[in-house]
Design goal:
Blueprint: E1 3-9, H1 13-23, E2 29-34, H2 52-59, E3 68-72, H3 78-91, E4 96-99, E5 104-105, H4 108-119, E6 127-129, E7 133-135, E8 141-144, E9 150-154, E10 161-163, E11 172-173, H5 180-189, H6 200-205, E12 226-227
Parallel strand pairs: 1-2, 1-4, 2-3, 6-10, 7-11
Antiparallel strand pairs: 4-9, 5-11, 6-9, 7-8, 8-12
Helix pairs in contact: 1-2
């Protein structure tokens, strides 16, 4: 079983090294596929708060076995950016491709179970969808939903989609446990920018304690923050600069 990961990157330094470390010992190679342009759906004149040099240094912060490889691309569309990353993994001999976005951290037991489940599956499916636990503005609150992005690609098969069972464990998404500066930039170039609820940044995002009905685009009470025990996070997160913060700003 040759497992390789890809991380499509434009910004995301706050969690990048933690995301990579969480999967490092389960994969043969980690590919960082960086574009200086936003590829999430919208272009913006806003200056990205994180430059290439910072991201490059962060990507190689932990690489004792020389598994990390940096790739510069110039894609402006997310689909092409991700397709290019899959192609890179395939050219390097991958059989399974683990999608590791810069703000997603895997518990070791979850990843071990997921890889075994997919590798041994008789479903013959290429794309495996996974459900997230999303942290909200701190490590003490989470929101949950039934959205399932593709996070594992089985290159032994040409098509088909399957779901990773929830009981294999959580995957933690920190895309809403970010600094105000990052969130503001995120929505300048986000694919759903045109659907952002009016006043969301000033009301839902800025409110504290966390308000109900806080999803950025869905106004049907889609996200309800609930208290979370931060000690359930993978141990590596205890070294994160945000660990002791009540609210990330």
């Amino acid at each position: 079983m040759n497992v390789q990961s890809y991380t499509v990157l434009h910004y995301g330094a706050d969690y990048l090294s933690y995301a990579l470390r969480s999967v490092y010992h389960f994969v043969d190679k980690l590919h960082i596929v960086y574009s200086p342009h936003p590829s999430h759906g919208h272009h913006s004149d806003a200056l990205c708060p994180e430059g290439r040099d910072l991201l490059l240094d962060t990507a190689y912060e932990y690489d004792p076995l020389n598994k990390v490889t940096w790739h510069d691309v110039s894609h402006r569309e997310e689909g092409r950016h991700r397709d290019a990353a899959v192609d890179i993994c395939q050219r390097h001999g991958a059989e399974l491709v683990l999608v590791v976005d810069a703000d997603e951290v895997w518990p070791e037991e979850t990843l071990a179970g997921v890889l075994s489940h997919v590798w041994d599956s008789t479903h013959d499916r290429r794309n495996w969808l996974i459900n997230f636990t999303t942290l909200w503005r701190s490590f003490d609150w989470v929101v949950r939903d039934d959205l399932w992005p593709v996070r594992l690609i089985d290159l032994r098969h040409g098509d088909g989609t399957a779901y990773v069972p929830r009981e294999l464990g959580p995957i933690y998404h920190f895309g809403y446990a970010v600094r105000d500066q990052i969130m503001s930039y995120k929505w300048e170039c986000h694919g759903h920018k045109g659907e952002l609820r009016p006043g969301w940044l000033d009301t839902k995002w800025a409110a504290w304690p966390p308000p109900p009905d806080c999803h950025p685009t869905n106004d049907r009470d889609f996200w309800r923050p609930e208290p979370f025990d931060r000690t359930a996070l993978p141990p590596l997160m205890r070294g994160h600069p945000f660990w002791g913060l009540e609210k990330i700003e």
